[in-house]
Design a protein that fits this description.
Distance between the termini of chain A: 70 Å
CATH architecture of the largest domain in chain A: 2-Layer Sandwich
Radius of gyration of chain B: 29 Å
Oligomer: heterodimer
Shape of chain A: elongated
Strand content of chain B: 15-25%
Helix content of chain A: 25-40%
Number of strands of chain B: 13
CATH class of the largest domain in chain A: Alpha Beta
Largest interface: A-B, 114 and 122 residues
Order of helices and strands of chain A: HEHHEEHHEHEEEEEEHEEHEH
């Protein structure tokens, strides 16, 4: 840890209200929470043991018990409450609450509480330097899914697959919700397919809570295909949106040369078409052929519908 | 790293926090443990200690103690500026605060969220994890860049960075997040612009001193964002193949054209975004109107296939 005396002083003081609220906490747990070594926590505790208020008689010193790696506070002096949130921590909380408000937009009771809380928080903010600019698409099934995760229950969903544009009914065991580029995704174990799948939450059109499951989730890797693409700089946002599957990226005179790991060609084919003509397939040839076929189909659609009018 | 100094800083903070009145330097030197040596040495020590604590965000207030002889100043840390008023939040609100902080586990702000959580848990004790299954934000921004920019916005310092191949020197006004990406709103020599954070070269730096520029008084980030998307909306009319393009069908009404196609009409803002979203459905969607969109879409495909 490379903190200076002042940083260490603040962290050491921060330990006191934390231990006060979490009596009997272990030093190893504290080390994890405060992102320092256990040794450092022990040193900090030994140090604050000697600190206190002017006078420095036993009545004025901070007092704690520290035995077998377990800590409790006997006398915190003035350190009974945590330090105020820093301005960066405030940003995290404020934007976080705004996101929660968007997610819970269908639940008036929760919404009221979040709004009241936001008012309290905003009172303590000097300026509106950071803003959540667009709503997050919420889902009426958000809380059902959430309780399914906490209770380890299965859910039965009707789901519209983006890449194939089909509806299907699935029984899944959800385990995590992620937010990526403003969308919410549900990671779950698909019981029938016996594999992990990721679902876009706003494409779930029905959701019923099912049985509790104590089945261990068997994580089987999805088959992965490697795809090499040339992406025009104008379409850099394609790469930005998909950073999680980009395994290699290199800027060349023609644009970004990237290697992606994809689970099926259908999705990547649609993406390439969306960005036409800014993404070109370098390999494999089968993908490039698929893209060409899709374009021919599209042109065909336009030519057969030529006679259909606007109204 | 000296234990002595850390100890002195803690004792100083505790003394200033516990006192109900402003303490003079002499009182501090004679009562707070850790100050010793000549008057000048103690003076130097105290000035340094005070600056270091202030740099970490501790508000040490100063007040002239003697209205006739201005030299003697008193120092104090106000409780409300130092500590969270724990009565301010109900147990349920603490739960929401926890969820709000939990959101950032996978993001550029994950260290800030961890620090905030520690403070929340210092009011509430351990929170039942069962109810706090919040989603996790995954973003691709670099936290160093993010925090540096945030600091510049707060201190009104100018920033210098490379963006799309050229060097920019800007006055940063604010940050916003949209679709999971962060954007900086800043003014360069010409106008107020937005910069996508992920495209700002990581060697961004603060140039000049704090308060290096002044933000226009009437500038409001929320308003600015409202203004910049006030483009006019246009109608698009498309054909959608039966039982296909379900994502569109869920959002817009259709009327039947024949056994194979339905028609759909809706409003759009940006031509490029519209084309991008319609091409996703490949041969299942055909643009009828406007002609400009139809032509552009077909031309884009032509260009891709002919390469």
């Amino acid at each position: 840890m490379t903190d200076n005396a002042a940083q260490r002083a603040l962290r050491t003081m921060d330990l006191i209200p934390y231990i006060l609220e979490n009596p009997g906490v272990s030093t190893s747990n504290l080390a994890m929470k405060f992102s320092v070594t256990q040794k450092q926590i022990e040193r900090d505790l030994q140090l604050i043991f000697l600190c206190g208020l002017p006078g420095y008689t036993p009545y004025e010193l901070i007092d704690l018990t520290f035995e077998d790696g377990i800590v409790s506070i006997i006398e915190p002096q003035v350190l009974t409450r945590p330090r105020n949130f820093s301005s960066n921590e405030m940003v995290v909380i404020k934007i976080g609450l705004e996101i929660l408000r968007e997610i819970n937009v269908d639940e008036p009771a929760k919404l009221d509480k979040i709004n009241t809380l936001l008012q309290k928080i905003n009172k303590n903010l000097d300026q509106e330097a950071v803003v959540l600019a667009n709503p997050i698409i919420s889902s009426p099934y958000y809380s059902v899914i959430n309780s399914a995760i906490s209770q380890r229950r299965q859910i039965k969903i009707e789901y519209q697959t983006v890449s194939t544009d089909q509806f299907s009914t699935r029984v899944i065991t959800p385990y995590a919700i992620n937010m990526l580029n403003g969308n919410m995704y549900l990671s779950a174990y698909d019981v029938d397919r016996r594999a992990e799948r990721v679902f876009k939450i706003d494409l779930i059109s029905k959701c019923e809570i099912g049985d509790q499951t104590d089945m261990d989730i068997i994580k089987t890797a999805q088959s992965e295909l490697m795809v090499e693409l040339m992406v025009d700089e104008k379409s850099a946002r394609f790469i930005e949106r998909n950073t999680s599957i980009v395994t290699k990226k290199e800027l060349t005179a023609e644009g970004f040369k990237v290697v992606l790991k994809v689970s099926n060609f259908d999705w990547i084919c649609r993406a390439i078409l969306s960005f036409a003509p800014h993404i070109r397939v370098i390999s494999p040839p089968s993908l490039s052929k698929l893209v060409d076929e899709r374009i021919k189909d599209l042109q065909e659609s336009y030519s057969i519908t030529r006679k259909i009018g606007v109204s | 790293m000296s234990d002595q100094k850390t100890e002195r800083l803690i004792n100083l903070t505790l003394a200033l926090l516990a006192s109900k009145r402003f303490l003079t330097k002499n009182e501090i030197f004679s009562t707070v443990a850790g100050y010793s040596g000549s008057a000048e040495t103690m003076e130097r020590m105290f000035e340094r200690d005070k600056d270091e604590l202030r740099n970490l965000g501790i508000k040490i207030e100063v007040r002239g103690m003697d209205p006739l002889f201005g030299d003697d100043q008193g120092y104090l840390i106000q409780e409300e500026s130092f500590q969270i008023n724990s009565n301010e939040f109900t147990q349920e609100e603490l739960l929401y605060l926890t969820m709000a902080a939990n959101l950032w586990h996978g993001s550029a702000l994950h260290n800030q969220s961890k620090a905030a959580l520690l403070k929340i848990q210092s009011i509430s004790g351990p929170i039942e994890v069962n109810d706090v299954n919040s989603p996790v934000i995954k973003d691709s921004e670099d936290s160093t860049t993010f925090l540096l920019i945030l600091e510049a916005i707060r201190n009104l310092s100018k920033l210098r960075f490379e963006y799309k191949g050229s060097i920019r020197i800007v006055s940063p006004y604010g940050l916003y997040t949209r679709d999971g990406f962060w954007y900086l709103v800043a003014e360069d020599d010409v106008a107020i612009k937005t910069f996508k954070l992920i495209r700002i070269n990581p060697n961004v730096e603060i140039v000049g001193k704090p308060n290096g520029f002044s933000k226009p008084e009437n500038f409001e980030l929320k308003k600015f964002l409202g203004d910049s998307k006030s483009d006019t909306e246009n109608n698009v009319i498309i054909l959608v193949r039966k039982n296909q393009a379900l994502a569109l069908r869920r959002r817009y009404q259709t009327d039947e054209v024949n056994s194979e196609w339905d028609r759909m009409k809706f409003k759009y803002l940006m031509a490029d975004e519209l084309i991008e979203s319609l091409l996703w459905f490949a041969s299942d969607v055909v643009v009828l109107e406007p002609e400009s969109i139809r032509k552009k879409l077909l031309a884009n495909c032509e260009e891709l296939i002919n390469d």
